[in-house]
Amino acid sequence: MIAGQLDRGSFDAVGLAPQLALLDGPEENPWARPLYFWIGLLPFAGIAGLLVLLGKPLEAAAAVGVYIVGATFLAPQVGLYAAFAIQAWDPYFIDPARHIEIIGFPTPTKVLSLVLAVVLLATPRRRKQKIGATRLTFVFAGGFVAWTVAISAFSPLPLLALRYSAQVLVLVVLGLAAVRFIRTREQVNRLMFWTIVGAVTACVLFHATGDPLSRRRGTLGEFSNPNTTAMTLSLGMIAIPAAWGLTRRKWMWALYAPAAAYIMMTLMMTGSRAACVSVVMAYSLGAVLTRGRGFIKKLAAAIFATAFGVGVFFAVLEARILDEKSQQRLESLVQSGQTTGQGFSRWYIWSNGVKTFLADPLIGAGLGNAPLAMAQVLHGEARDVHSNYLAAMVETGAVGAGLFLGVLAAAALATWRIPRANPGVPATILLLYVLLSSVTHTTYLTKMFWLPLVLALVVCEYGASAERAGTAGSPPPTGEASR
After folding, report:
1. Torsion angle, CA of 280/284/89/203, rounded to 10 degrees?
2. Per-residue pLDDT averaged across 375-380, rounded?
3. Contact at 8 Å (CB) between 468 and 420?
4. DSSP state string for 254-287
5. Quick check: pTM over 0.85?
């Protein structure tokens, strides 16, 4: 089992490349091996298929869900792979009829996140990896959650603030589970792979159920928001560079390239300008902003990524396959003379957000209470501030905003410290997407902010472990890294 616990980098460092195959061999926990998982899934899949034939799709999903939950308690990695795969499907499950006052919409990812939080707490310490490179990020995240709970009593709607604090707490714990259970190259690669699979299959559902000729922007599900759909699909898009760089099966590249184009095309059908711009810019800047040698190679990678993203963007626009509203919104990004009414412009909303913040700069309004706070300061105005940075200021005050920025700064520091371009570039792309998408949308209370950040942190921890193993020829920190 010693060989099974070593990171692949340790074998590279001492010239034992042939021994790498041992890392894919038998593991102490059979449920951590894909073959055992798929064998166990067969009877549940059969039951689910029968339920679908009987016209009970929700019951079919529940049957598979029961199996995944059970497998998660046996091998937490299974739950993490599933959570990042099904997150792209969440908009499909949004339905006002299933809204629960305490937790909102019980989407599959939200339910599985709670399961993973319980699994993390119940798992013995010896089975969990130590946190190294991302420790400071989670310290700031913990402080941020504690502060939001403390100020919730002063909010216009205290229960709403507490609900969102609890939601952020669960997402932070999900991040802890990811960095403590996912560490080896194969595990990180699987996490990225299933994130991409989830996005691609969600795109298939998007096209199968959508109406491309309608004037309504594309969504996944009748009641979902186009921006929500766009951001869930974006996660699969920005996971592709990490999967590309970490896979040992080079033939997978032939699948990832068209997958990126397909996701990008579907992403554009939502008409989300912020998501499209964030993805393309993250791809373009990720390589050149990464620490490491080989500037020419990094520049070439940046040029290729930019050409790919911009090429797909303009190809889709020229093909005229988008609905009318999405076409007009995205064309406004590249056409001069496009203006927006003051009442609905980001600048107008942001200026109101600053005024709201200045009315209570220390404590803030509490999570989710920004519209109410704005209405109290500016009569007749009750809007989301459309920016994570400004929302953190309005809802958590100067102290909370400082802690929130500390989370991002610590994550950026961990990313910058990755000494090698691979996995440094994929981690930078993931983090840049988080930073860029945070400018124009308020997502820091949801998985749409935390899940891409978690992927970046997982890559950071892997990069740190691989570097230690590669330079010292020793295993990563204690724990069952083979799981």
Report:
1. 60
2. 85
3. no
4. HHHHHHHHHHHHHHHHTT-HHHHHHHHHHHHHHT
5. yes
